[in-house]
Amino acid sequence: xxxxxxxxFVMLCLALVxxxxxxxxxxxxxxxxINDAKQYDGKTVNYKGEVIGDVMIRGDYAWLxxxxxxxxxxxxxxxxxxxxxxYAGDYHKxxxxxxxxxxxxxxxxxxxxxLDIHASEIKKITSGSAVIQPISIKKVxxxxxxxxxxxxxxxxxKYFQSR
Amino acid sequence: MILKPQVNDIKNIGYYLGRIILGIGLTxxxxxxxxxxxxxxxxxxxxxxxxxxxxxxxGLALSWLCKTxxxxxxxxxxxxxxxxxxxxxxxxxIPLLLSGHYKSFLDxxxxxxxxxxxxxxxxxxDLDHLSRTHNLWRHLGPFLGGQGIAIIAISxxxxxxxxxxxLYQGEGRDEKLVPNVIHTARFIxxxxxxxxxxxxxxxxxxxxxxxxxxxxxxxxxxCIFMAGFDTAGFSPQSPNILYYxxxxxxxxxxxxxVIGSFNFNxxxxxxxxxxxxxxxxxxxxxxxxxxxxxxLITMAGLKHWGVYSDGMILFRKGFFQLISGQTTTGYxxxxxxxxxxxxxxLALTGIILAMALGGCACSTAGGIKMLRVGVICKAFRxxxxxxxxxxxxxxxxxFHHIKTMFIEDKQVRAVLIVTLGxxxxxxxxxxxxxxxxxxxxxxxxxxxxxxxxxxxxxxxTDASMPAILKVTYIIEMWAGRLELMSVFAxxxxxxxxxxxx
Amino acid sequence: MKKIAIFYTVTVGIFxxxxxxxxxxxxxSLFALAIQYIR
Lengths: 163, 501, 39
Fold this sequence. Notes:
The structure holds 3 protein chains of 3 kinds. Chain A folds into 2 domains: 26-130, CATH 2.40.50.140; 134-163. Chain A is elongated and about 110 Å long. By secondary structure, chain A is of the alpha+beta class. Chain A has helices spanning 2-23, 30-35, 37-40, 137-162, and strands at 27-28, 44-58, 61-67, 72-78, 93-94, 97-105, 116-126, 129-130.
């Protein structure tokens, strides 16, 4: 009896673990998606990365691009899903890190054959921030000194050539 | 007997080289000022200040040491051109290297050679976080190099009787729009700037309509125009033209790619009232004819392999990549790997053919050029006709390029030699690629893309590719842009130096 | 007067260049449309 209960308890735990890991697909990288596009076509994928560039609002939907460090993939999402996104990465900012769940298309019929993901859910993992780009004092010195040297050289050249 | 170059010849070359290097140094003040004042990116701006000073110093020193009043003749002019492209490549790579977005100086040189030759193959790392100042320089390269370094030199830095003309012709440009080559250079600038204004406005408005904020839309517009009209293929964001997800944007880009690949002489004729020229010209006719053939091959390939089945998708993916290849721009709306993983050999063959043949002569486009392809076809027709006629009959073949001309053997010979030269370049890069372990079709694709200054990539071009392949592609891009002659002149110069008496 | 004439000629020139591009795009569209119906 005790053995039976223990066995049942172990099976229950195992069932819970297995079912929870089936709720979400494993995160795919951009290279996975592009290199095996035919396998992933039409399937639900899980893709994570940094939002970069621009969030382009088009009516009730929007385009955003998520770069996982290798390649940026276009995500088509309803406007309501992107309201949390504050930062899109560029020189001055580090973009929000998001996890996208949605349908992958190798050649989207709705979007002229573009490779994209139609998002069903976007989760913000880490918020982005403004990046302060430091100015190297060494660069300032080299810049100013080299400018002085060039001007001096030009003046000298003109002087010697006119003599 | 090979004559050894004299000190005066070397000084002559040094002087003009110095002036061109000085010119490049001065142009670097443009990103310096824009970066400091407009973009508020002081650190990138400083990169340009430092690089400008280095180039200006070298330019001033060279032109001072080699000061000469001697006229620049054809041979030395070609050497100047060949060397100045290498010098410009190296000096404009300095600010890019300082940006930290390139893994090595070689990568930065690859980028600048790709930019100035209006190729578009890129080795940039983390493009989406690159400063606007550095990105502007990436796109300015094609605008300057597309016009021609010789054009810049002639417009601002070089005077003399035959020097300017010899520099212009040394860069693979034979067409004189107007008798005075300096006026020709100025007209080329005028066309480019007129289209720059039109292009920036149109692309900026389209950009805003697809969801870009105004400031970003116009920055993208300037960059996309410069890389599109100058048939380069660089883009400010990593997904290239796919970033915009817009049919309108793609159509406008196609417009600028096609007219950017027009002969500047054709632009001159049309803009001065000779409108019929656009339909009578051998290049525009050959272009139309070639497009029909390569479109047929590519579409058949895509349909047969089941890559795309919808008409709109066949146009937006198939035709866009094709026209990008034919005009030797290199804009892409698919990812590089998709060429190899999805397209199939027949469609790829169509693209390779389009790239190899290229755009019009005396333009920013590369490849064998439509004028040569047209002349070869006409010569072929002439030879076939003469087989069927009596041995005593004389077959003449005419073609129209601004004016109606007869095909002459001397002309056909010159055309065939340069065409063979291009095939040699395509083959050289393929051989090196295959030798390093890359598959044949991919090596051929990438090599043709480099030598024809296209910029479409199937994935080989990557920071991790072997250094020898990077150097091979740099040489291909350089030689392809200069139509080989100046490169041979440089080699000849060194041979004469070593072996001459 | 001369400036207006130049502006007019250039505008018409750009128009004809655009027409040529439309022909090229037309060829591409035609082939794309036609080939999708070929089995």
